[in-house]
Every structure is written in structure tokens, then in C-alpha cells.
Amino acid sequence: MLIVLTGIDGSGKSTAAQALVSSIRADGGTATLLNNHAGRRSMSVLGTRLGFRLPPRVADALETAFRVWNVLVNHLRASRADGLVVMDRHLYCQLALRATKGLPRGRLLPWLLGALPAADAVVHLDVDPAVAHRRIAARGTDAETLEDLAAFARAYRELPEYGSFEKVDASVSGPELARRLAGVVRGLGRAPVEGRHPAST
Q1: How many whole angstroms separate alpha carbon 62 and alpha carbon 70?
Q2: Which residues form the Thymidylate kinase-like domain (predicted)?
Q3: Which of 29, 35, 70, 148 is most buried, judged by most C-beta within 10 A?
């Protein structure tokens, strides 16, 4: 079973994904966490330290290259994994980021989304940008403006694929969010501790 998590920065994707995987393992199940990062935070932190910001198209080209590589490698890993596979981020995230920068969707990412094995569910962690902004400020590892987060949230909602996403309220605590994600897994009608991922059967 493959689940993809999406959401703006500060929605709790990584924390919730790790909590979900850990809880399944603690109950004797099998679960794998795979990260489809694009290196955006690292590039942002480096740019802040050096006092420059990459042009939007250059930044997108670098992020897309990293993201596509990670997605392709992780889909290969998912095809060989037992139980539940949780992907933290995916190509949808890059499409939403492009929209916030006023860049076109292009052809590669939509084509890849159609060519790759479909996830059993794409779960979007929905959170108020103001809440996300407070979380980001509290962790102190990166910086996002409230305006950027609001634009990112709008971009997700305007994705053609957004209507098929499973929406989960991510304004709750980490443990509660993990429980809600576990509920989504149960609602799919297949126990993640049994059998292999569909792509490998």
C-alpha cells in the first residue's frame, strides 16, 4: 500500500509520516518511510547565509531535478517494499511550488504523474497558513513568510489533481494527526501489515 503526503511547509508532513510509520512498526506491522525532498530548504538557508536568492526558474530547475530523482528512486524502492509505504512529498509539491512562482506546469511532471504507479491515496494535510507560519517560526530552522505560505496553499487547491486528494485537518497535535492518518490507512480497506505493495505482486 502506497500513501503520498502533501501540504504546505509547517503542515507537519514529516513529523506525521514518521509517527505513522513508527506506530505501525510498534504494533508489529511493516512500514517504510521515503522522502521526496527537493533540497529547497537547504538552498534557501544557503542563499540567506550568502546573501543572494536564485532566480525562480533556476531554483525550480534545481528543485525539479532533485525531486524527480528522489521520486523515481523511491518508487523503485516502494515496488520492493512490504506493507505500508509512506512518501513524504511528491511531484504534486513541485507543481504547487511552480504555481506560487508564476511558472507553468510544463509537460514532464504531469507526464510522470501519469506514468508512475498510482498511490492508493494522496493525503493532503490541510492547515491554516498562519498556524503553519507559527510552527515554522518555532522550529527556527528555516524561514517562510505568511504571504508565501498562503500562496502555496492556494496553489495546492488550484491543482487539477487536488479534487482527488484525501484532505486531513493538520491543525491538530502531532499524535492526533498520526491517528487520523492511521484512520485513512484503515479506510482504504487493506491492512498494511499483510502482503506486499501492489506494484510488486
Answers
A1: 13
A2: 7-173
A3: 70
